[in-house]
């Protein structure tokens, strides 16, 4: 009896999941679609989550690390991740095949405040792997299109080959209720049909009501400063500018301390922060 | 799944690391069980040097041309190469700082004339100076428990990661009195953990046999030891054993600069 | 609060009686230091002030197996032994209260909870030495967080009952308990006055959150970073430090993977380093700044009190004298003779 309770009550206990689908998004980023083996599991892993939350992916013998969920809760049952091969855990993940098992804990983190975004124009700016958490919120907004105002999505990548979800965005660009702009820094093969240049160059297309806009940015650390300047230029208030941050995390529950910044634990107080938070908590970015 | 094929090799060193593998008496059978041991000359002269290896464990430093050739051969046939012991990871006591150039030291020991030698000597260096090293297990000699953990992970197909934090952590977990505070030359703060703070637990100051942690603050340690009344010679001598030439030389300059 | 007294001569039998709850642990001398160890009551050092490692080790040990992975299944068989921990002082109990709030907030930590349930905390009064500064952190007296608390009045000890678990444990030692009289209370008040007058170390923590926050760019951190050995001792000995790391180890003999959980430190280089090698706090000074922000600012804004309980373990443990007292003084521009302030900042 006690045994069972202990097993269930332990939020450190990973839940088994099966890799349903995987394919390469770029040279070093792979897409994984996974399904929990026990879909009735209620705590700590639930089958629902908010866009912007993350999961701890656990592989025995190697360890655990946090990964943004890139799928949307409006398409339940599956969790999707885009994973770049950078370390031991991700290298191991890349060795796995479809139908192999991985283990999950979560979902963790505050996620985007979706409810307070309802009725607002949404402006997304993604750079590189930053597209992963933003895709979750974007797909959520597209699935609930009538809840939101105008929808702008700006996405920059180094080259066309580095652009995550390239084909998906090519298709989404066809939608009339959604403004999607893609840009690349370089186009070595010379067949890129869209904009070239840094992601901030896409701001010329943006037409939102700044007082009623939620702006969201995610990308490499160097990108934030420039993108935030553009948001401010548009007149979007600090409290409506959201960014999602990366940190080292071992627990996801505000315990291990490794993601701490000042007195905030990025894993529970974040990973989504507003520009107001960033201005007030030294060291966030 | 077929058993991973491994080989255990020694270059220039005391063979103490290989000996400690043999000393894993209780677990030795388990090791033979999970691995297919292709070459372990210290244990058996029946070695198969032809077949490729999943993992090669190599102890000892590269100190001769023959060592270097041997190392390159091992590297070529092995998927993973693991440096075991201080000599293989950092160069060992043979690369200690003597205050002289290597050639001078060599001549002082072996005489001015070329000694009769089967191979040309080289300044002793760790494996990583010549080939890619996939994982390391420091220690002089390596310890049984850390070796078994490392071997186990390798058997599971995982490349082990050596954590990077100082001996002091493990020392505090064991609630030892701090030997630095007691006025000894203890290199705990600069030395990588994993040994379980064996020496400080026996009241013996750490001499650094697990090698330095990354970005160690040797300046602060040197400053502290100087404040505690130790001479430049005493400090340099302790640092020199396992610290490698470059570090000890910098340390000496640092201390002398401060004194002068 | 329920209050009894026992004769001093009955202290050892009283503690032996409590062994009915679990193993008896208390402060025992080890060389020049004191550690919590399993021992007979006669071996306890009743005058001991600070053990080298605080009582947090009973609630989350320095290193333990948190999960096992065996035959493709995860297992959690962590079962801490039942222990009576004797000899915690008010500062130590305050630290456990901080520990409790921290580990049970949001997601309650199951390992902590199990150990907490299995531990009977028996506090003991103390008289400060030249390092104690718990009066400055407001932790020199304690009203909750213990199961039993003993105040030593010389020939007798007052026994305060702080929890249902403590009340229950008194059934084991009922025969030693006596009712308290008016004189015991007046003697206690007099003892408190004497004790409060005995503090020698002056530390001014007034306004520290603001001072630390506005010293974000102070050169003090840089200087401290030069002298910091990054040995992690401060965090290991601090009773309110909670950080840990996890590492998977393989037990060859049993063919199981053990997910080891062990005390970690924000002063270690890899603390804020993510896969791929980016380090959010590359400089030692940044890591130290985090530690002091966390101690003196972070908890203030969350719980209204600093995460320092004035035990002075950092003061007696840091080889280069980086500790709450010297750092607070340096940030207040007060004089401090700490060793780290003497290290010249070279360009090396």
Q: Which residues of chain B sit in consecutive blocks of at least 5 with pLDDT less than 50?
A: none
The multimeric state of the shown protein is heterotrimer
CATH homologous group name of the largest domain in chain B: NADH:ubiquinone oxidoreductase-like, 20kDa subunit
* Strand line-up of the largest beta sheet of chain B: 2-1-3-5-7
Domain count of chain A: 2
Strand order of the largest sheet of chain A: 10-9-8-7-11-12-15
CATH architecture name of the largest domain in chain A: 3-Layer(aba) Sandwich
Query: What is the 3D shape of chain B?
Result: globular
**β-strand amount of chain B:** 5-15%
Q: Which class best fits the helix and strand makeup of chain B? A: alpha/beta
In short:
Chain B is an alpha/beta fold.
Walk me through this protein's architecture.
The complex is a heterotrimer of chains A (285), B (260) and C (348). Chain A has 2 domains: 2-108, Translation factors (Elongation Factor Tu (Ef-tu), domain 3, Beta Barrel); 114-244, Nucleotide-binding domain of ferredoxin-NADP reductase (FNR) module (Rossmann fold, 3-Layer(aba) Sandwich), CATH 3.40.50. With 285 residues, chain A is α/β, with parallel strands linked by helices. Chain A has helices spanning 2-9, 88-94, 114-117, 131-143, 166-172, 221-234, 266-269, 275-280, and strands at residues 15-24, 29-36, 54-59, 63-68, 79-84, 101-108, 121-127, 151-157, 179-184, 195-196, 213-218, 241-244, 260-261, 264-265, 272-274. Chain A has a 7-stranded mixed sheet with strand order 10-9-8-7-11-12-15, sandwiched between helices. Chain B is of the alpha/beta class. Chain B has 2 domains: 5-155, NADH:ubiquinone oxidoreductase-like, 20kDa subunit (Rossmann fold); 167-259, no CATH class. In chain B, the strands form 2 sheets. In chain B, strands 2-1-3-5-7 form a 5-stranded parallel sheet, with helices on both faces. A two-stranded antiparallel sheet of chain B has the order 4-6. In chain B, helix 10 runs antiparallel to helix 11 (245-259). By secondary structure, chain C is of the alpha/beta class. Chain C has helices at 11-18, 56-59, 90-104, 110-117, 164-169, 182-196, 208-214, 219-227, 233-237, 284-303, 313-317, 324-331, and strands at 2-7, 23-30, 33-38, 63-70, 73-75, 83-88, 119-124, 148-152, 156-161, 244-251, 256-263. In chain C, strand 10 and strand 11 (256-263) form a beta hairpin. Chain C is globular, with a radius of gyration of 22 Å.
């Amino acid at each position: 009896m006690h045994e069972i309770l202990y097993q269930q009550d332990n939020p450190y206990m990973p839940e088994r999941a099966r890799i349903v689908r995987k394919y390469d998004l770029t040279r070093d980023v792979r897409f994984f679609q996974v399904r929990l083996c026990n879909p009735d599991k209620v705590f700590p892993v639930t089958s629902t989550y908010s866009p912007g939350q993350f999961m701890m992916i656990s592989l025995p013998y190697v360890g655990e690390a946090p990964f943004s969920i890139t799928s949307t809760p409006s398409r339940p049952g599956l969790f999707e991740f885009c994973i770049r091969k950078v370390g031991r855990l991700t290298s191991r993940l890349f060795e796995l095949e479809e139908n192999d098992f991985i283990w999950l804990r979560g979902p963790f983190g505050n996620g985007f405040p979706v409810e307070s975004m309802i009725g607002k124009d949404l402006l997304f700016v993604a750079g590189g792997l930053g597209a992963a958490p933003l895709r979750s919120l974007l797909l959520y907004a597209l699935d609930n299109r009538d809840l939101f105002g105008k929808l702008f999505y700006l996405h920059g990548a180094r080259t066309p080959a580095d652009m995550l979800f390239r084909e998906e965005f090519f298709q989404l660009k066809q939608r009339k209720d959604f403004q999607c702009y893609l840009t690349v820094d370089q186009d070595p093969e010379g067949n890129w049909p869209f904009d070239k240049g840094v992601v901030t160059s896409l701001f010329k297309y943006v037409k939102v009501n700044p007082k009623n806009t939620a702006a969201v940015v995610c990308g490499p650390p160097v990108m934030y400063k420039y993108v935030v300047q553009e948001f401010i230029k548009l007149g979007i208030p600090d409290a409506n500018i959201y960014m999602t941050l990366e940190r080292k995390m071992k627990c996801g529950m505000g315990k291990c301390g490794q993601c701490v910044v000042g007195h905030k634990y990025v894993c529970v107080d974040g990973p989504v922060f507003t520009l107001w938070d960033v201005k007030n908590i030294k060291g966030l970015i | 799944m077929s058993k991973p094929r491994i080989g255990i090799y020694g270059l220039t060193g005391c063979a103490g690391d290989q000996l400690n593998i043999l000393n894993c008496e209780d677990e030795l059978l388990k090791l033979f069980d999970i691995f297919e041991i292709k070459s372990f000359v210290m244990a058996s002269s029946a070695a198969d040097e032809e077949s490729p290896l999943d993992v090669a464990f190599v102890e000892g430093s590269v100190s001769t041309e023959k060592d270097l050739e041997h190392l390159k051969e091992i590297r070529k046939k092995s998927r993973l190469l693991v440096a075991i012991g201080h000599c293989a990871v950092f160069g060992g006591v043979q690369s200690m700082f003597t205050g002289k150039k290597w050639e001078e030291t060599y001549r002082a020991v072996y005489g001015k004339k070329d000694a009769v030698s089967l191979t040309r000597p080289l300044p002793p260096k760790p494996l990583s100076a010549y080939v890619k090293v996939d994982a390391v297990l420091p220690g002089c000699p390596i310890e049984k428990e850390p070796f078994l953990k490392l071997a186990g992970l390798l058997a599971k197909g995982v490349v082990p990661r050596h954590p990077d934090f100082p001996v002091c952590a493990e020392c505090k977990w064991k609630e030892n009195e701090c030997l630095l505070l007691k006025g000894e030359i203890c290199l705990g703060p600069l030395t990588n953990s994993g040994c379980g703070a064996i020496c400080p637990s026996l009241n013996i100051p750490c001499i650094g046999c697990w090698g330095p942690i990354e970005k160690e603050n040797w300046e602060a340690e040197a400053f502290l030891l100087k404040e505690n009344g130790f001479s430049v010679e005493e400090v340099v001598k302790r640092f020199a054993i396992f610290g490698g030439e470059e570090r000890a030389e910098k340390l000496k300059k640092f201390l002398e600069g401060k004194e002068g | 609060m329920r209050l009894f007294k026992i004769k001093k001569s009955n202290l050892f039998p009283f503690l032996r009686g409590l062994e009915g709850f679990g193993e008896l642990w208390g402060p025992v001398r080890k060389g020049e230091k004191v550690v919590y160890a399993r021992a007979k009551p006669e071996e306890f050092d009743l005058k001991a002030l600070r053990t080298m490692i605080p009582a947090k080790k009973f609630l989350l040990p320095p290193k333990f197996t948190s999960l096992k992975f065996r035959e493709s299944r995860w297992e959690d068989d962590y079962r801490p032994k039942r222990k009576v921990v004797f000899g915690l002082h008010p500062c130590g109990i305050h630290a456990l209260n901080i520990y409790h709030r921290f580990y049970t907030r949001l997601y309650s930590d199951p390992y902590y909870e199990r150990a907490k349930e299995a531990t009977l905390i028996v506090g003991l009064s103390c008289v400060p030495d030249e390092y104690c500064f718990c009066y400055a952190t407001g932790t020199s007296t304690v009203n909750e967080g213990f199961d039993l608390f003993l105040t030593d009045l010389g020939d007798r000890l007052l026994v305060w009952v702080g929890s249902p678990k403590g009340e229950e444990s008194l059934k084991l030692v009922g025969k030693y308990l006596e009712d308290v009289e008016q004189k015991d209370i007046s003697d206690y008040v007099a003892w408190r006055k004497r004790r409060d007058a005995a503090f020698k170390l002056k530390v001014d923590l007034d306004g520290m959150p603001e001072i630390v926050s506005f010293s974000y760019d102070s050169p003090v951190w840089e200087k401290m970073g030069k002298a910091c050995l990054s040995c992690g001792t401060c965090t290991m000995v601090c009773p309110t430090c909670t950080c840990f790391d996890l590492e998977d180890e393989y037990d060859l003999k049993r063919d199981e993977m053990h997910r080891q959980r062990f005390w970690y430190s924000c002063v270690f280089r890899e603390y804020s380093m993510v896969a791929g090698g980016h380090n959010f706090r590359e400089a030692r000074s940044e890591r130290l700044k985090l530690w002091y922000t966390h101690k003196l600012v972070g908890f203030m804004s969350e719980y209204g009190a600093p995460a320092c309980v004035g035990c002075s373990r950092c003061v007696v443990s840091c080889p280069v004298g980086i500790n709450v007292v010297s750092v607070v003084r340096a940030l207040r521009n007060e004089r401090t003779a700490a060793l780290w302030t003497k290290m010249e900042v070279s360009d090396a």
